[in-house]
Design goal:
The chain is an alpha/beta fold and 345 residues long. The chain is built from ten helices and 14 strands. It starts with a strand and ends in a 16-residue tail after the last helix.
């Protein structure tokens, strides 16, 4: 049995970790921290978990210093995780970090987009936790940087084209729509019900912090620098991301060839579903699941491919992918606790 701790367990990603791990046959949450709810039972803070964690009490965040478990999920905000991860690793815990603190390889890039880093010495050893790209490295990692939600959807949609050398590297556009839970559980006027209901807006155009993360991983796939145009949008749903990517083809290929490229790329991936030709994803069809659905349209005349992906931003875009990474790190069956079908309704 794996003993699991969650540092920062009272946000949306913390809740999703707790929810998913109730179904894990070989992992048990033995510790969860929360500054806001310290001393309160987990099942009181999250009534839907009553009967699962009635004896688990949220502890002081500072208690991370005494943790000695098999794996720690750090679900702290950006900037906060880097303050605790070094001590967790020194105590011989394996760590899966859900913040952006260890996703970027370049310290200068991190400083440009996020500011100063207090544990930059760990950046070279952190493994970017997208299993479809880095499964082998994840197996032996002690620190896994769990990918962001937008990057997960964009990277999975574009990787087959770039790996095959079929995408013009100067033409890539990523257009994403996200549910409100992507902004976190904290109170914020911009993501309150009244502000979001019936609305639909773009935000942080050209300045979203997930941009360098997407470019970093796509550059690794392509073998040369990739620069994208990325526009995120907020839509009035609780969860889900729909990403539409556009790329010009470098040569003439048929729609059938492009479709078969995606099918072959993801044939053995347990959580990527390439939809039938002419069919495109809907966020309702991945809700509550760890799946990424992908649909492809190829305009042979204009030599352009449009790849559309859908994920649940809190599952494949965060906590589900984190559990998938844990399973890989401990050589478990990859779909443990993640095999339930999407909610759909």
């Amino acid at each position: 049995m794996l003993n699991v701790a969650i540092v920062g367990g009272s946000g949306y990603t913390g809740f999703e970790l707790l929810r998913i791990l109730t179904q894990h046959p070989t992992a048990k949450v033995v510790e969860a921290t929360s500054r806001q709810y310290k001393g309160k039972p987990v099942s009181e803070v999250f009534p839907s978990l009553k009967g699962y964690y009635d004896d688990l009490i949220f502890s002081e965040p500072e208690d991370f210093k005494r943790l000695s478990v098999d794996v720690v999920f750090s679900a702290l905000p950006h900037g906060a995780s880097q303050e605790v991860v070094p001590a967790l690793l020194e105590a011989d815990n394996r760590v899966i970090d859900l913040s952006a603190d260890f996703r970027l390889h370049s310290l200068e890039t991190y400083k440009t987009w996020y500011g100063e880093h207090k544990a930059d010495f760990l950046l070279p050893e952190a493994v970017y936790g997208l299993p479809e790209l880095h499964r082998a490295a994840i197996k032996d990692a002690h620190l896994v940087a769990n990918p962001g939600c937008y990057p997960t959807s964009a990277i999975l949609a574009l990787s087959p084209l770039l790996r095959a050398g079929l995408a013009d590297k100067e033409s890539i556009i990523v257009d994403s729509k996200s549910g409100v839970s992507g902004a976190g559980r904290g109170a914020n006027i911009d993501t309150s019900y009244v502000e979001v209901s019936s609305g639909f807006k773009a935000y942080k155009i050209g300045s979203h912090r997930h941009t360098p993360e997407i470019e970093q991983e796509l550059t690794g796939v392509a073998g040369s620098d990739i620069n994208i145009t990325f526009t995120p949008h907020l839509i009035p749903v609780s969860r889900g991301i729909l990403t539409t990517t556009y790329a010009k083809l470098t040569k003439s290929v048929s729609a059938k060839e492009v479709y078969e490229l995606y099918r072959e790329t993801y044939r053995s991936e347990p959580f990527v579903r390439v939809l039938p030709e002419g069919t495109f994803p809907n966020i309702s069809n991945v809700r509550g699941s760890n799946y990424c659905d992908i649909g492809i349209f190829t305009d042979e005349k204009r030599k352009q491919v449009i790849a559309v992906s859908a994920i649940d931003n809190l599952v494949k875009g965060a906590s589900g992918q984190a559990v998938q990474n844990m399973n890989i790190m401990f050589w478990l069956k990859e779909d443990m606790a993640l095999s339930a079908p999407p909610l759909a309704i």
